[in-house]
């Protein structure tokens, strides 16, 4: 693999990191106009009276985010945003039980502007140490990357993560099978929360990577170069033990540090006198996670527990994101909450959370999930006339909600009306057991 040589002597004003282009399309509103977006009128309809209090909001997210910007406990305080918006698929989505969930019918400029307006407001909610992840597929990921660069700044782009979303399918179309989607990771600034995730070594990968056994100690190690590309004029460009770094390269450490490392036995000398650095297996926390995620497919068989809401994401994938980009007690927000995967995982990991969705089915699903968790679901599990017996116990061990909750409803004629009887039912389910836990 070729490694480029960083330009440290170039024109300092000409930053490689700047983006001097943007996406043009009809109907692109000014940032000032977007920041003046009308605010949602929110009515709190259910409270589970415990601390900390999380929030579930049934409303149009643009107006809801705009109203959250008025709250000084939220604006500029959110540490992590994960959103999984509609993907411009041109489809409408139903749950496994064939109930309408949401439409995904916007396309082109209309779709991009819909997302851009929300991203501009979401940026204002983010803390200076905050991160945002946006999940998309190949339909719109490319233009949205350019919008993200405009809104968050190219220099705050961290990763384009490729996720394997499903098992290979038998495609009949004349093209390669599509098994991936994408997560774009940006931060608000440079000093962001980051807990480096690691994958555990397997015996096989550890043996392949750490092939050498240190004499005397028996420690496994691998050998890596002690030089890096680029010429340096300072100490790292000077001879060490009478040896200059190879042509066009410099030492990774000063000769003084290399001496100390050698004294500790951390330098391997080849029979021809070439020094290499030893990296020990017992010092490794695992394999640092890379930007291809193969282990987080969405529910693909009937043994996996789900809610039945369409496009529900793998909770372990959300767990990786929440653990890497937030700490306990931090505020996490999902403005396209769907089945509430972000909310449920945030709750389990001791983060505070706000979840917003404008689908009545999504809100009902999230409440059910908080009260009962997820369940194995599928034609085989629920159909074929087979009877499913449920053993009820007083304290539901699958309950996810452990902390407090406020459910808000946006007062607007645009949204489906949720009958008072349904709200009363949710209230009793959410509050039941709350005092036991
Ligand atoms: C792809 S789904 C999210 C799935 C979610 N990540 C999960 O794991 O279940 C997108 C969600 O965005 C919601 N949505 C779309 N437009 C919205 C809007 N303008 N305001 C609030 N929610 C919206 C839809 O109702 C839908 O539930």
UniProtKB/TrEMBL annotation:
GO terms for biological process: methylation. GO terms for cellular component: cytoplasm. Residues 78-360 form the DNA methylase N-4/N-6 domain. Pfam families: N6_N4_Mtase. Signal peptide: none annotated. One of its GO terms (molecular function) is DNA binding. Keywords: Methyltransferase, S-adenosyl-L-methionine, Transferase. The keyword Amino-acid biosynthesis does not apply. The keyword S-adenosyl-L-methionine applies. Belongs to the N(4)/N(6)-methyltransferase family. This is Site-specific DNA-methyltransferase.
């Amino acid at each position: 693999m070729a490694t480029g040589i960083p330009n440290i002597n170039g024109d300092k004003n000409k930053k490689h990191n700047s983006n001097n282009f943007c996406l043009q399309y009809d109907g692109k509103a000014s940032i000032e106009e977007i920041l003046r977006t009308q605010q949602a009128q929110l009515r709190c309809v259910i409270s589970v009276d415990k601390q900390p209090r999380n929030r579930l909001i049934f409303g149009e997210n643009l107006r809801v985010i705009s109203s959250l910007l008025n709250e000084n406990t939220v604006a500029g305080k959110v540490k992590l945003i994960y959103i999984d918006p509609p993907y411009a698929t041109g489809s409408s989505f139903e749950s496994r039980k064939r109930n309408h969930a949401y439409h995904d019918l916007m396309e082109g400029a209309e779709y991009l502007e819909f997302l851009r307006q929300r991203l501009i407001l979401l940026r204002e909610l983010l803390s200076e140490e905050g991160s945002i992840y946006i999940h998309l597929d190949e339909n719109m990921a490319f233009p949205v990357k350019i919008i993200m660069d405009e809104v968050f700044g190219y220099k705050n782009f961290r990763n384009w993560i490729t996720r394997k979303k499903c098992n290979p399918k038998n495609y009949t179309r004349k093209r390669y099978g599509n098994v991936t989607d994408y997560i774009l990771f940006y931060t608000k600034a440079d000093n962001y929360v980051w807990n480096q995730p690691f994958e555990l070594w397997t015996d096989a990968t550890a043996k392949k990577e750490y092939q050498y056994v240190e004499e005397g100690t028996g420690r496994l190690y691998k050998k890596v170069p002690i030089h890096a590309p680029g010429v340096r004029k300072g100490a790292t460009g000077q001879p060490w033990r009478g040896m200059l770094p190879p042509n066009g390269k410099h030492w990774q450490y000063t000769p003084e540090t290399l001496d100390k490392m050698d004294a500790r036995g951390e330098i391997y000398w080849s029979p021809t006198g070439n020094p290499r650095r030893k990296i020990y297996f017992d010092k490794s926390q695992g394999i640092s996670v890379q930007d291809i995620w193969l282990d987080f497919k969405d529910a693909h068989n009937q043994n996996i527990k789900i809610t039945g809401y369409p496009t529900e994401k793998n909770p372990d994938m959300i767990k990786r994101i929440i653990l890497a980009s937030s700490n306990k007690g931090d505020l996490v927000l999902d403005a396209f909450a769907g089945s509430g995967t972000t909310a449920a995982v945030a709750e389990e990991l001791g983060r505070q959370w706000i979840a917003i969705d404008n689908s009545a089915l999504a809100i009902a699903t999230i409440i059910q999930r908080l009260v009962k968790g997820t369940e194995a679901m599928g034609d085989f599990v629920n159909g074929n006339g087979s009877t499913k017996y449920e053993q009820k116990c007083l304290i539901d061990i699958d309950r996810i909600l452990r902390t407090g909750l406020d459910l808000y409803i946006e007062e607007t004629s645009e949204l489906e009306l949720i009958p008072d009887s349904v709200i009363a039912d949710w209230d009793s389910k959410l509050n039941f057991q709350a005092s036991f836990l």
